[in-house]
Each structure stands twice: as C-alpha cells, then as structure tokens.
From TrEMBL:
<comment type="function">
    <text>Together with LptE, is involved in the assembly of lipopolysaccharide (LPS) at the surface of the outer membrane.</text>
</comment>
<keyword id="KW-0732">Signal</keyword>
<dbReference type="GO" id="GO:1990351">
    <property type="term" value="C:transporter complex"/>
</dbReference>
<dbReference type="Pfam" id="PF03968">
    <property type="entry name" value="LptD_N"/>
</dbReference>
<dbReference type="InterPro" id="IPR050218">
    <property type="entry name" value="LptD"/>
</dbReference>
<comment type="subunit">
    <text>Component of the lipopolysaccharide transport and assembly complex. Interacts with LptE and LptA.</text>
</comment>
<keyword id="KW-0998">Cell outer membrane</keyword>
<dbReference type="GO" id="GO:0015920">
    <property type="term" value="P:lipopolysaccharide transport"/>
</dbReference>
<dbReference type="InterPro" id="IPR007543">
    <property type="entry name" value="LptD_C"/>
</dbReference>
<comment type="similarity">
    <text>Belongs to the LptD family.</text>
</comment>
<feature type="domain" description="LptD C-terminal">
    <location>
        <begin position="288"/>
        <end position="657"/>
    </location>
</feature>
<dbReference type="InterPro" id="IPR020889">
    <property type="entry name" value="LipoPS_assembly_LptD"/>
</dbReference>
<dbReference type="Pfam" id="PF04453">
    <property type="entry name" value="LptD"/>
</dbReference>
<dbReference type="GO" id="GO:0009279">
    <property type="term" value="C:cell outer membrane"/>
</dbReference>
<dbReference type="InterPro" id="IPR005653">
    <property type="entry name" value="OstA-like_N"/>
</dbReference>
<protein>
    <recommendedName>
        <fullName>LPS-assembly protein LptD</fullName>
    </recommendedName>
</protein>
<dbReference type="GO" id="GO:0043165">
    <property type="term" value="P:Gram-negative-bacterium-type cell outer membrane assembly"/>
</dbReference>
Amino acid sequence: MSKNWGILVLPLISTQVIANSNTVSGLCKDYLQPKDWQPMQGLLPETIDIQANKVELQGTDSAEFSGDVAVNTQTMTVTAKSALIDKRKGLLNASGPLLFQDNYTMVNSSGMYADLSQSEFSLLGAQYQLTQQLGKGKAEKLRATSTQVDLFNSSFTTCPSNTPFWEIEASSITLDKEKGWGETYNTVLKILDTPVIYVPYFTFPIDDKRKSGLLTPTLSSSNRYGLEIVTPYYLNLAENYDALLTPRYMSNKGLQLQGEFRYLTEQHAGIFATEFLSDDKSEPDLEERYLVHWQQKSYFGDNWRANIDVTNVSDDNYLTDLGSNYANQTDTQLSRKAQLSYLGEDWLIDLQLHNFEVLGNHAESYAAFPEITVKNRTAEKYFGVDWQFTGQMSHFKNDDAEITDATRIHLEPSVTYNLNDYAWSFDSKLSLLHTHYEQNGSFNKTEYAESISRTLPQVRLHGQLNLERSTNLLLSDGIQTLEPQIQYLYTPEKDQSRIGSYDTVKMQDDFFGLFRERRFSGVDYISEANQFTLGATTRLLDSKNTERFSLSVGQIIYLSNSAKPTESALDNRFGEKNYNALFAAETKIHWHPRWYFSGGIQYDADEKDLIRSHMTIDYRGNNKKLVQLNHHYVNDVSGNEIDQVGIFTSLPIDDNWQVVASYHRDLTSKRSIEVFAGVQYESCCWAVQITGNRTIETDLNQSTSFQDPVFDSSINFNFVLKGLGSKSRYDASQLLKQGIFGYRRPYFLNN
C-alpha cells in the first residue's frame, strides 16, 4: 500500500488511540492489568531508599549495589540485578533484567539510566504496560519524565495476548501526560501481524481531551442508496467550539456533504447544521436537496431567556428519502420557532414566532407572527381565594386558506379555591374565557365573520380521596392505596361556527385526558361540557416503597345530550371520530425486578367499540439480555385502522457474541413493516457489527402510504479496533434504536 494512501487514512488512527481504553471490561479479565503504583510508605521527599544484598562504595559520592537491588523514590521504583548510583549528581545506572514502575507505566527492561534529580529515566529493550489504561508494547528505548514518555522503535496494542489481533509499530511515539496528547512518526498498523496501513505522522489523545481527526467510518449497502460510505471528520476548534464534517457517499444518489457546528458561551448554547446534495442521481427532476437546522438557547441575566429551533428542508421527501439526525423520518411537518421570555417576579411574558413546514399533500398550517402570552407568575390572594390571569395576542397567516390572516386576543381571568389534607383534596376553578377575532380573507360565501367575539364561563370542581392500608396480597409488608376522584366540568353551549381554526387540535382521550378542562388544545374551539368524570387509581407498594402495581380507570358521563361530542358538528371539523361514553384505563406492573408490563385502553361504552390500546411486556436480564413484546391498536388514523405487533430482543450468546433483532408487523394489512437484525462480536481489542434492515419506503408526495408498499433493504458493516475507535461506535445497546420503531423502556412509552 502506498504512502499517499496512508496519509489519506491518517485521521482514522489519530482520533481515539488509547483514549477510550482506560478501563478493563469483563472481556479483558485475562488482561493482567497492574495495580496503580504507590511510593514506599514513610519515604521522605527528595530521598532515595536502596536495598541490596551487597554494596561497594566508590569514593564518598558513589556506590555500586548488586543482588536483588531495590531502588525507591517518591516518583518511581526499580528492582534490578545491579545498580550504580552517583549521590552528588543524582545519577542511576541499573542493569537487568530489571522492573521499573511509576504512576503511568510498568516496564521490564535490560538496562536503565536515570537522572533522579530531574526525574528522567531511559530504559533499553523495554517491554512496557500502561497502568492508567489498557495498552502495552515494546520499545528499543523508553524515556520517561514527570510529564512525558518517549518510545523509540516501538509498538502498541490494547490486545492482551502475546500474538495481538492488531498493533501499531512506529519509529517514535511521544505521550505528553500534561497536554493529554501523543504523536507518532512512521507508523504501520498491523492486523494479524500483516501490515495494513502506513501513516507518516499523526497525533492522538491519551485522555478524555478532544482531538481533531476522522471518526470511525461506516459502510453499508441498500436498495435505496446502493453502496454507502460515511466518513465523519471531527474538528476541535476551541474549548467551547467544535465542528463535524461528514462526507456521505451513496452510489445511487451521489455525494452528500453534512456539517455541524456546536458552540457554548456564557449566554448561548447552540448547534447549527446543514446537509447538501447538489445532484440526486435517483431524482433527476429535483434540484439541489438540502437541510438546514439551527437550535439555540440563550440566557440574558436572571430574567430573560431566548430559544430558537428551526429546521428547513428543500423538498417534502427529504427526510423519508435521505434521513437526518435532526428530524424523524416519520415527521409530516417541521416546527420552526423563535421565543423570547421574560421571567419576572410577578409576571411571565413570552414573545413567540412560530410556523410549520408541512410535508406531503396536506393543508398548510397557520403561522403565528407574532404570539404574545402574559400571565401572572403566582396567584394573588384576595378574600381567601386565588386570582390568576392569562392573556394572549396572536396574529395568524396562511395565504392558502380561506381566512388568509387573523388576529386573536384571548383573555382568561380565573379564580380558584383549593382545600388539601393528607387523605383528601378539593379543587375548584371558575374561569371566564373571552376571545375576540379579526379575520380577513375570501370567505364572502362562507359563514366566517370578519369581526367576532366569544365569551364563555367555565366551572371545574375536582375532589379526590387518598386511602391506604397494609396488605400481604402478593407482597410481604406491602401497602395498597386507593385514590378515587370525581370531577364536574361545565362550559355552556356557544355557536362558534363563524370562527376559523388556527392552532387547535383534538387531544388524546387517555385516562389523564379524561380530567382535562378542555378536549382541544388552543382556544379556537371550546367544546360544550356538562359532565361528570369518575375515576380511581389503586397501587401496590412493597416494603421499600417501590411501586409494583398500579391500575387507573375512568369514564366520562354526560348530563345533557347537547354536550355529547357526537352531537356537535364542529367536533368533526378536526377529522377524528368522536365518542360519547369514553372509558379509559392504564396499568403498570413491576412484579419482578426484571419484568415490566405497561398497558392501556380507550373504549366507547355506548357503541362497544375499542378506540385504541397499547401493551408492552419488557424483560431486562443480566449481561444485556433484553426482550420486549408490544402491541398497538388505533381504530381510526386518517381513515385507516392501525393494528401492529412488534418484538425487540438483544441476546448475548457468550462473552463475545451478541445478537440484536426487531420485527414489526401490521395485522390489518397482513404484512411486515420493519425487520431489523444485527450480530456483534466484541473481544478485548476489536469489535465488528453487521446489521440488516428492511422497511417500507414512505413517499409523502403520494396521497396515502397504505397502498402498494415499496420495501428498502440495507446491510451495514462497522469494524472497530478498540483503542483506535470510540466505544459508542460499537455499543450493541445502540443497535435497538436504529430502526423506525426504536426500542423504548415501557415506563417511557409515549402513545
């Protein structure tokens, strides 16, 4: 292999040598890692303790020691066959075989010369082993000082065996312990004692300090991309700035350039990223394809905050076609938001600019330019009750809608009265919801009004009991709680057909949603309410106060027919089916330290119709064993039924081999949605991953993704020499997160 090629791959070795090999894992239990060196107890500073079977004085300042010689100072220990010491000059000559140890290295050597006054040591014919991290090798000469180790005609590896899987050989290696950097000259990487790469010069970190260089490349092949090679290059620009440049070559599409810049100052923390593909060979009708992402959080003193989160793409199919770390492939819209907040002692004020980039053939969303929200930070107490106020002014714009722009002013004063005790609580709230709209557009033949106001009172009464008792049911010395609750909610009927819908969507009707004050987010539509909500939660806690079981059930009971969701034509404006007798339940079971169960249902008690359900069983065993079964059902998503079952599993075969797999199937369409499998081999000094994935391609330009599915199959390969690559590059636990349906702990499911 030519030297020019070696220069091109130089950063591959320069990035993580030694830095990530600072611990001894279970895989390396046969690696005889030496204990950290400690100086002799009771040894005074700037003194030398010498023990030997025989000593011969040579004048008043020199002496020769022989037979089991042991030399101890505050910085090192040497055991040798013989030693000659010049006390006046502080020089030491020792002949071997000898053993040298300090707080960084342990060296077997044939001879040593040392300047003890300067703490400088030179050893010949050295076989060394690092004591602060994995690493060993040989050197014709090793020179050590208090801040630096120099190796000449040397080798290095993290493999414990006498015939290492890999090692590097160099004419010289320098390890600077203060700066945390090393450098080598004329280096050859050998795998199975075969030279693979020649590198004239490179530097590398020897601790956790960052260093510019090429991160571990990845290689994969798929139907969509063809041969794919990703080579990220890290740039350590300063302590508070860095960047990542990533060329991504796809034989079916072309060369995509990705860049990421991170920054951190006293006031700002953020990231700016861009992705660019000048010419997509598989999409000749498209021009340049790109993604731009900017996220920043700013802090201006104790009272002011600012947030920016913007993602923009060149075309609707960018995410589903090319993927990105800055948005999900399943996203159908991208949020773009800028917010300035004032956190005063009495008032909270938010100024926000917010819009969405809608992906696919969907109606465009309204942009809020601007939206100002004001509310008091703490309630004011008058006449024994709490007074609160929330106000909001918003201006919406959408050139593609019937109402092209609108200004909304919403005022919401409220008064609350609460009582709390150990065993019970009572909350009451009376709100006045006043909203005024100024609407403009081409809607002369519609029922929308140019100027309209709406005022509604709202009453919420909520009470809860907190009961508990000792129990031995399924537990020893356990506690069972019972938490029944009841809520009454009243909002009068109001004709709202002349008001447009700008930022209002229907919220999910799970157990916790049953006790919300409103069924819709935003204030454009406030549904009529005259209803009781009954619910209860019971829990089992063990003697250590760990929750082992919980069950929550609840149902809404409507007191008037007009308040039922199916009776309101406006409820159907938001495209979801409505239910009158909604029953919801949630449960979590943690009956064993390794077993978890999570489940929930929403059910229409009138129509005897299952609305949605979810279930997850999770087993987490020793040694990275993991199995998860899950099922999700929704009876109506844009007119389609979703009934999907999935499994995740991660099973170690032995200390070296591990298998990871996931499978998801749509029971309605009777087809697989995603299949993922991976196998990893990891030894003490190298690791290899091979993964395969088969998923349905999504085209947001089509009216629906439920017809004529097209599958994309891919194979990925990742090979890492441990000590020359980051741990995150071969962590098998990360494999479960690579698919569209990434593994999630059951207690953190977001259904």
